[in-house]
Design brief:
Layout: H1 3-22, E1 39-43, H2 58-73, H3 83-100, H4 113-123, H5 144-158, H6 169-181, E2 188-190, E3 193-195, H7 197-203, E4 211-215, E5 224-227, E6 238-241, H8 244-256, E7 261-265, E8 277-278, H9 283-288, H10 293-298, H11 320-328, E9 336-345, E10 351-356, E11 368-372, H12 373-379, E12 380-386, H13 392-398
Parallel strand pairs: 4-6, 8-11
Antiparallel strand pairs: 1-9, 2-3, 4-12, 5-6, 7-9, 7-12, 9-10, 10-11
Helix pairs in contact: 2-4, 3-4, 3-6, 5-6
Length: 400
């Protein structure tokens, strides 16, 4: 090796050394903020997750899930009640009322918890095995065609083309329901004993007179009965109106004493994700931190606008006036019925309610939602609850 080669090699080594020492050390990769981490505080028994699939019958799935839990709490067996038995009766009653009112009534698949309660009181109940309601060639509920046909049918009747209603229209309507959902069983056997729908309902350890609907609106007097003014309440079922703090006290008292509740809410908000979370982000508070790393993850930063509720953040403080404004300006609507059965807290100590939906094993938590206390205060439409779960001072004011 000649001197020139040695010099070149030495120069190369020197340059490598200079580059190595001259480079800045990379900062360690910053971890993304932790998502939601929940700790269960209260969890009451519920039956398995069901799937309403392509139907508008959440009101029925959630109400029957609630009653299944009520039966368990009363010491009864775990049962699977037939949603389509309720739906069949409800559709028939709704058609009759729609025609009686010359079509001036909401006629659609939606309804209320009170509708399910009415059917159970007046017509009874059957196990789901006796009436699954899948008589139209699919493995999951799919009511688009049935809803279109029944809607067209009652509208044709209301037009009164004969100038006098026939004696056949009710039978014809029931024929449509029977074709899609199956005929309602008149007798059946459970554990070797024969029942009718009414005697089966009577055999279950619940008193249907114990259940009341609760709302909280400022345009009605408190502690009085009123009609929940939503289109789906076509039976015009009544509810007790209470202040917001009383509604929340009823919810907490019920859950902490082993009861569950049927819960109707607006789920069209951005804060109610399809991934198992329901929150009311305080966007103004978030915007104040815009540009910060925290904001980047909670949605205020334009670099990541889709992360609005990716991790716990500040939420709005809800007042009765905010609730009422949302209801009056159509920002709070009667979207979805669910089953509330527990309480949890996130890693920051924020309180959430554990909700069972009827969308199958959807979302991160496989059919379960965690909905913040702020969301429940803001977007609750009504709750169905056992009156024995209501705090005594509120029961006294309601006369229950």
């Amino acid at each position: 090796m000649n001197l020139k080669s040695v010099i070149l090699i030495g120069a190369s080594v020197c340059m490598l050394s200079v580059n190595a020492f001259g480079q800045k050390k990379k900062a360690p990769k910053q971890e993304e903020p932790q998502g939601y981490v929940f700790t269960t505080v209260v969890e009451n028994p519920v039956t398995s997750i069901k799937n309403q699939s392509s139907t508008g019958t959440c009101w029925c799935f959630s109400a029957l899930s609630f009653f299944e839990s009520e039966i368990i709490k009363a010491g009864g067996p775990e049962v699977d009640l037939a949603e389509m038995f309720v739906v069949s009766h409800a559709y028939a009653d709704k058609a009759e009322k729609y025609v009686r009112l010359h079509g001036v009534l909401n006629f659609g698949p939606g309804s209320s918890f009170g509708d399910a309660l009415y059917v159970m009181k007046h017509y009874g109940m059957v196990p789901n095995s006796e009436m699954e309601g899948l008589n139209y060639g699919t493995d999951a509920h799919q009511h688009g065609e049935m809803d279109a046909v029944t809607d067209a049918y009652v509208k044709a009747v209301v037009k009164n083309p004969n100038r006098k209603l026939s004696t056949a229209w009710k039978k014809g309507f029931q024929g449509i329901l029977d074709a899609y959902l199956g005929e309602r069983p008149e007798k059946f056997v459970v554990d070797g004993k024969e029942y009718t729908p009414k005697t089966y309902m009577e055999s279950l350890p619940v008193n249907l007179d114990d259940y009341v609907d609760i709302v909280s609106w400022t345009h009605f007097p408190y502690y009085e009965e009123t009609i929940q003014e939503v289109p789906d309440n076509w039976r015009w079922e009544k509810a007790y109106n209470v202040p917001l703090e009383d509604m929340m006290a009823i919810i907490d008292n019920a859950l902490n004493n082993g009861y569950t509740l049927a819960w109707a809410s607006d789920v069209s908000e951005k804060g109610f994700t399809r991934d198992g979370i329901g929150v009311v982000p305080d966007t103004e508070a978030i915007k104040k931190a815009a540009g910060s790393d925290e904001a980047r993850w909670i949605g205020a930063d334009p670099r990541n606008p889709g992360k609005t509720v990716a991790t716990p953040g500040p939420e709005l403080t809800i007042t009765p006036e905010m609730r009422q404004a949302g209801y009056d300006n159509y920002q709070t609507t009667d979207d979805h019925g669910m089953h509330m059965y527990g309480i949890a807290k996130d890693q920051n100590g924020t309180k959430y309610y554990i909700i069972k939906s009827s969308w199958g094993a959807a979302g991160t938590y496989k059919g379960i939602w965690y909905v913040s206390e702020s969301f429940v205060k803001y977007k609750t439409m009504d709750i169905l609850v056992n009156k024995n779960a209501i705090p005594q001072d509120i029961r006294t004011k309601l006369g229950l």
